[in-house]
Amino acid sequence: MSEKDKRFPLPLASVVDSPSRASRAQPSSVIKVATPQTATRNAALNQQHNQARTAALADIPGRALPKTGSASAQSSIRQDVSRASESVRHAMAARIAKQGVRDAKVLAAMQTVPRHMFIEQGLSSQAYIDASLPIGHHQTISQPYIVARMIEVMRDNANAGKLDRVLEIGTGCGYQAAVLSLVAKEVYSIERIKPLHELAKSNLRPLRIANIRLHYGDGMLGLPQAAPFDGIILAAAGLEVPPALLEQLCIGGRLVAPVGDRHQVLQLIERIGKFEWTNTTLEACHFVPLRPGIV
Ligand code: SAH
């Protein structure tokens, strides 16, 4: 990890010329499917993967570069791989922008968080492709596009994107929590599988992010002690959104969740009054299932 990468949150750099205003959610009649990966795109990405692999090997803490030559040669290699890592993240954010995410703050956050640090070493060459990847215990790290898309929709609130307190259900390896930490003042994240809760803690520790609170528990119950939340994101799909989560949303707050079984859609729920919520269906998606209880 370079000196620059050690500082976290890293300075946010804008990656596209689009305006910082978050785009309005699509009406429910428009159902889009996230672009599937194609062989052509994979081929085009190969070069980036190779760069990512080199960068990942150097950026993973405690992982020394091969001893080839002098200290200054090694330091120059480190600078090169750090730049390579930044450039693949830049390419990933640009790709997400092409897929339709317009919120510059979200794109900048995607460009900043080192996704390869949340993935086991054997898969780190694939860290910046647009796919979900296994993280153990039959769970996955979410596809970068959908991470960005959900955060963009959550930020597109009546408060010009201001988020004091957000809740994530399904910490997994901790990646989305790290992205959220760059767009919200306080991030709470719940995971029901103990070893994954521990994995997220150890993935996030080297990044020293001060505004994330990880909880081990059943996210279907939410986190009443920290509620209400300006935004809630579910990273796992249930047949319906748990009622406790609707209750823990601020008035004006936005909840974004995949809903369904085999056929899933991304839903936006906005609380517009004490007893009133609106529901908009955004696009098709694919997530691991939301399950009750803890393991
Ligand atoms: N946020 C992750 C995605 C993790 S995958 C990322 O950054 O990529 C979804 C996670 O939701 C899994 O780890 C799964 O164990 C968890 N999950 C499923 N049901 C849950 C529940 N009721 N409470 C908390 N976590 C849950």
Structure description:
Helix 2 runs antiparallel to helix 3 (71-98) and helix 3 (71-98) runs antiparallel to helix 4 (104-112). The two termini are 33 Å apart. The chain has 295 residues and is an alpha/beta fold. It has helices at residues 3-6, 39-59, 71-98, 104-112, 144-155, 175-180, 194-204, 243-247, and strands at 32-33, 133-136, 139-141, 165-169, 186-191, 212-216, 229-234, 249-260, 264-273, 276-285. An 8-stranded mixed β-sheet has the order 1-10-9-8-7-4-5-6. Strands 2-3 form a two-stranded antiparallel sheet. The protein is globular. Mean pLDDT is 81; it is low at 1-69. The site of S-adenosyl-L-homocysteine (SAH) has 25 residues, from strand 3, helix 6 and strand 5.
Please specify the SSE layout and strand pairing.
Elements: H1 3-6, E1 32-33, H2 39-59, H3 71-98, H4 104-112, E2 133-136, E3 139-141, H5 144-155, E4 165-169, H6 175-180, E5 186-191, H7 194-204, E6 212-216, E7 229-234, H8 243-247, E8 249-260, E9 264-273, E10 276-285
Parallel strand pairs: 1-10, 4-5, 4-7, 5-6, 7-8
Antiparallel strand pairs: 2-3, 8-9, 9-10
S-adenosyl-L-homocysteine is lined by residues 139-142, 169-173, 175-176, 190-193, 196, 218-220, 235-236, 288, 290-292.
